[in-house]
Amino acid sequence: MHITIAEDVAQEYLADVADILGDKDFLRLSLYTHHQWTNRLMHSVNVSYLSWLIAGRLGCDRRSAARAGLLHDFCLYDFADGTPTGEHQAFYHPKAAAETSQRHFTVSDKERDAILSHMFPLGPVPNSREAWIISMADKLCATVEVCRIPIALSRRNRVMVA
Length: 162
Ligand SMILES: [Fe+2]
Ligand SMILES: [Fe+2]
Hints:
The protein has about 160 residues and is mainly α. The chain has a single domain (about 5-160), classed as Hypothetical protein af1432. About 55% of the residues lie in helices and about 5% in strands. The protein contains seven helices and four strands. The strands form two sheets. A two-stranded antiparallel ribbon has the order 1-4. The protein has a two-stranded antiparallel ribbon with strand order 2-3. A hairpin with a 3-residue loop joins strand 2 and strand 3 (about 40). The protein starts with a strand and ends with a strand. Bound molecules: fe (ii) ion (2 copies). The site of one fe (ii) ion has 5 residues, from loops.
């Protein structure tokens, strides 16, 4: 599995997330269909990049926004599967994503909390500005992706995985 990133993608962004995008397990997210027309990797990249842009504009911690945005759905299973706890997937998958992320990468408390609260109001209230940005970016990307409209880094195929 190989990721191709266009040269016009901000190097500052790539520097913030390079270790994650270089991880072979993380790239396996591309195997899971997400929001009907895309895959979970592209969705995660879109949420991450949009969060990074917004956080930068608002003077927030854009590195944390980019990393937690990228990891917010880091679950290597099909969301159609049941959950081991019997919880609805909407409540369960943020916890699974936080656990998988911590097993693979160094994740700060702020990043972990943002991953856990990204489904708000289904689940905990975001407790940082970066967590709010990720929760909003996730909903925006999901809505646009369901409408089959390219957003963020899926526009002009700026990121592709094969
Ligand atoms: Fe999610
Ligand atoms: Fe998501």
